[in-house]
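Lab notebook, bench 4. We co-purified these components, and the gel suggests they stay together. Before we commit to crystallization screens, I want a quick structural picture of the whole thing.
Request: model the full complex, all chains together.
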Amino acid sequence: MTTTATDLKVDVWPGLTPRLLRTGAAPEELQEYADAGGYQRIDDPGPLLDAVSASGLLGRGGAAFPLAVKLTTVRAAAQAGHQTVVIANGEEGEPASVKDRWLLRNRPHLVLDGLRLAARVVGAQRGFVYVSDPRAAAAVEAALVTAGTHLGSVQVSVVTVDPAYIAGEESAAVRVINGGPAKPTDKPPRVFEAGVGGLPTLVSNVETLAHLPFILRHGPAEFRRHGTEASPGTFLATVTGAGRPPALYELPHGTRTADLLVRHGVDPDSVTGVLMGGYFAGLLNRSIVEATLDHESMRALGSGLGCGAVAVLTEDCPVAVAASVLSYFDRENAGQCGSCFNGTAAMAAVAQALRDGVADHDDVARLRRWSVVLRGRGACATLDGAANVAASLLDQFPALVDSHIGGGCADCAGFAALRPFEVEAVS
Amino acid sequence: MRIKLDRTLCDGFGICAKHAPDYFSLDDWGYACLEGNGEVPEQDRDAVMRALLDCPVHAIIEIPAPKGAAPAADAAATTARS
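Here is the predicted assembly.
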């Protein structure tokens, strides 16, 4: 299940002029990026903020928060006389996602251009690119050397951190840059109130920022030419599982899952479900096949697009997948909040027992209750992710859960991944 | 008064939930979570303040009123930490 980067297929949806992906083996050089219209001059950031607002650009890190709202909040702080900071968050904690590392490794100037524009809008003189992947860090460092005056007045530094699920959470990013451990803090304050050095800080995913140069050049109407009303634009999807090599697609929001499966070389009839949004949004049954990939459709199914990572299940048993992911959360949580380190351990234990055929009805009832009452009890969303996995297993695969009570299955026995659907081991 | 609970500090003593059960709920392992938005009306202030002062790990923190807000009647009793 673990593969190397060279196995990664990179593919643009048919009929789409790519906004984020590009073909070519080497990282994009400054000249190539500038010749294609990058690093365009910007005199007044006000109209760009209006364009971002009209574009409806949603955050691509997982929470789908409107970027314009974050920009407006931090810009208001700058206009009230505060210094401000921007962080391009490229610490892709989700093992099943590769898009942020791909962007940083292959199109560092696109990300830096987005960072520069965000910094202009919020009046920031300090910017950080926050990453764990050494190749991504090297590509951005090299791009910073060549970008020079293209970045304007913002001083940009690369900050590297050891890879971890929780290290990519926005308050963990701020904490690392402030000299602390890569662990989230409780809220309030939010990072836009008090972030790096106590200053109002915009933390945005690198893919989100990478859309800004397009919006500057082409405007919100062109941005909305693809996608749906509530999920505008294109997005990057990491597709794993189904016994196929992993692939990175740029596709419009609203694409039918069945079409993506066919393009990925998977027979939709063979699909039993998916693990959505990396490890965060939980499992979905076969209803995903006819659904469209956008935030509103996923919400209607009780799931989420998250960071756009879709792990396709064909022969893997969802019970074993849930046990594996919950065990991951048990190991990889920050160890800070009691509800989280106890709750993830407890939910993982029941899921493992179910997988091993030794769980009873009381265990499953406990799992169901924890999946409800533990929600929102952690300082970050890790515990919610674990609750999503537990709740979705019970809701989406009730017959399968029943059949595992008092007896496992043959498929479960063959599934024992520590980091299921990991695209690439990050060393 | 306004309070917050830092769940990364909570060690599950549970004293808060005894003093102010409407404001602090405990999970199966005794760890607390703040109920509501942290606003504490005057009539509940004493109970919540006991919870705050009795928390052995100082996980309950009073949030100072935002600048420009009308001074609260209980402003003199602040024990805010930052």
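Strands of chain B lie at 2-5, 24-26, 32-34, 60-63. Worth comparing against the SEC data before the next meeting. The first helix of chain B runs from residue 15 to 19.
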